[in-house]
UniProtKB/TrEMBL annotation:
Pfam families on file: ADH_N, ADH_zinc_N
Transmembrane segments: none
PROSITE patterns xref list: ADH_ZINC
Upper taxonomic lineage: Bacteria, Pseudomonadati, Pseudomonadota, Alphaproteobacteria, Sphingomonadales
Name of the protein in its database record: Enoyl reductase (ER) domain-containing protein
Keywords: Metal-binding, Oxidoreductase, Zinc
Gene Ontology MF term list: oxidoreductase activity, acting on the CH-OH group of donors, NAD or NADP as acceptor; zinc ion binding
Oxidoreductase listed as a keyword: yes
Family per similarity comment: Belongs to the zinc-containing alcohol dehydrogenase family.
Matching InterPro entries: ADH-like_C, ADH-like_N, ADH_Zn_CS, ER, GroES-like_sf, NAD(P)-bd_dom_sf, Zn_alcohol_dh
Every Enoyl reductase (ER) domain range: 10-336
Cofactor needs: Zn(2+)
């Protein structure tokens, strides 16, 4: 079996001699068609962040990443009922394994869901990050006219914007913040009203110019009640972590900050705005099972276009090139087409 093998930071390869997994009781074996490279996979690729739960070991000792994928059921484990070999499914795993010809998936509504007709495998491989976005938007409870800021518009942050627009939520300004121009342009294309490139200067001043400035005994802020931190903390990036800037930006009263982006280790930030402004800071980890289904229904009904977010596609044979491309500024979402072969 072909499978990716994560070796060390900056080094990932393909192996052709990995053992094909066997589904345990309560599992199915999925023949993978497409698998996305997630932001968390990149954190691991850069510096081993969360390696212990992002890569699944084969009997040979290969460490196979990939936790968001789509394919067909190839085999049923003991006791599995209600599913059939050949069904098109989305799989989500907690410990990788999807960047391979085959991967086992437990049968439960958090990790296995049927694909509707009219949705391609490539689109469906973005279901999990879309569901993540739906949960974040649900938690934020955006009220009519409220301005929104999204830090980090990779596949997750773009999914947040798509979730807001697809559900016809009556937001005010939707401001996307990133350091990559290609991603900011994509954010405008799918529904952001404004973009700010954090490399261009003072993010607070730029957002306040768009959304308005507030000042009282509580301090100074921009008029932004809702902030999604989809960037987290990337150790090699200069400047304050996005969460610190979010605390400066968030409204003087009633603010909500939803944190999703991974953190590459401890960080130091100014926490005093928490006392002054009393915002609610919520973590968001995953999704509700119904949001996996909702994400697929939005794709089927044409309310979100996930294909437009896929900037590059590579065969599994070119796994190293795929990861290197995902690190580049022009990449939005890099997809692995597992069944495609490198041209001779």
């Amino acid at each position: 079996m072909k499978a990716a093998n994560y070796v060390d930071p900056g080094k990932i390869e393909m192996r052709v001699d990995a053992t094909r997994p066997v589904p345990a009781p309560g599992e199915v074996l999925v023949a993978v068609e497409a698998c996305g490279i997630c932001g968390s996979d990149l954190h691991m690729y850069r510096n081993n962040t969360s390696r212990d739960h992002l890569a699944r070991k084969t009997p040979e000792g290969y460490e196979v990443p990939g936790h968001e994928f789509a394919g067909r059921i190839a085999e049923l484990g003991e006791g599995v009922t209600g599913w059939a070999v050949g069904e098109r499914v989305v799989g989500v795993t907690g410990f990788g394994g999807g960047m391979a010809d085959y991967v086992t998936v437990p049968v439960n509504p958090f990790q296995l869901v049927r694909m509707p007709d009219g949705v391609s495998f490539v689109e469906a491989a973005t279901t999990e990050p879309m569901a993540d976005g739906l949960q974040m938007v649900r938690k934020a409870e955006i009220r009519p006219g409220e301005n929104v800021v999204v830090f980090g518009v990779g596949i997750i942050g773009l999914g947040v914007i798509q979730a807001i627009r697809a559900q016809a939520i009556d937001a005010g300004r939707i401001v996307a913040i990133d350091v990559q121009q290609a991603r900011l342009e994509k954010a405008l294309e799918i529904g952001a009203t404004d973009v700010v490139n954090a490399r261009d200067g003072d993010v607070f001043a730029a957002v306040a110019a768009i959304c308005g400035r507030e000042e009282s005994y509580r301090g100074v802020s921009a008029n932004v009640p809702v902030i999604f931190d989809c960037a987290g903390y990337i150790a090699h990036m200069s400047g304050p972590p996005p969460l610190e800037t979010a605390l400066r930006l968030v409204s003087l009263t009633g603010g909500r900050i939803i944190c999703f982006g991974a953190f590459e280790g401890p960080m130091t930030i100014d926490m005093m705005p928490i006392i002054h402004k009393e915002p609610v800071i919520m973590g968001s980890n995953g999704y509700a099972p119904e949001e996996l289904v909702q994400a697929l229904e939005l794709m089927r009904d044409g309310k979100v276009d996930r294909n437009t977010l896929i900037s590059h596609s590579y065969p599994l044979d070119a796994i190293s090139d795929a990861f290197e491309m995902q690190c580049q500024p022009q990449a939005v979402k890099v997809m692995l087409d597992i069944r495609e072969q490198v041209a001779a």
